[in-house]
Specification:
By secondary structure, the protein is mainly α. It has one domain. The chain contains 8 helices and no strands. α1 crosses α5 and α3 crosses α6.
């Protein structure tokens, strides 16, 4: 039961990124290069993400807050900063994100990134 709840939180986190996870590898790499080369571009993407995550249902944000070990109010900012900084730096790869919706994939790196441990 505890594992299922945690896995559900991971899937919920993945669902919050649905637009990002549908990118093809070339698009992923291009966006990564753009974020690496332009801090202003990365800030704009993070700001847009923060607005989108902030508009999600309270229950969704509560679940993700538990996974991330942050308060509910910090979920949008922490989630988007951790995800996009990991993407830009290469700590999250295209391959890491492709398995995010699979129940059998190893999503431990995604979890560590969201928790601020990687």
């Amino acid at each position: 039961m505890c594992f299922e709840m945690r896995f559900g939180a991971v899937l919920l986190g993945a669902a919050l990124l649905a637009g990002c996870t549908s990118a093809k590898e070339g698009q992923w790499n291009t966006a990564q290069a753009a974020m690496q080369g332009s801090p202003a571009f990365k800030r704009e993407i993070i700001a847009d993400c923060t607005k989108q995550i902030g508009s999600r249902r309270l229950e969704d944000r509560q679940t993700v807050a538990k996974l991330m070990n942050v308060g509910i109010a910090r979920v949008p900012t922490a989630f988007c900063n951790r995800f996009f900084n990991a993407w830009a730096s290469g700590r999250l790869s295209y391959r890491d994100i492709q398995g995010i919706h699979s129940q059998t994939a190893d999503n431990s790196r995604f979890v560590r990134v969201l928790q601020g441990r990687e």
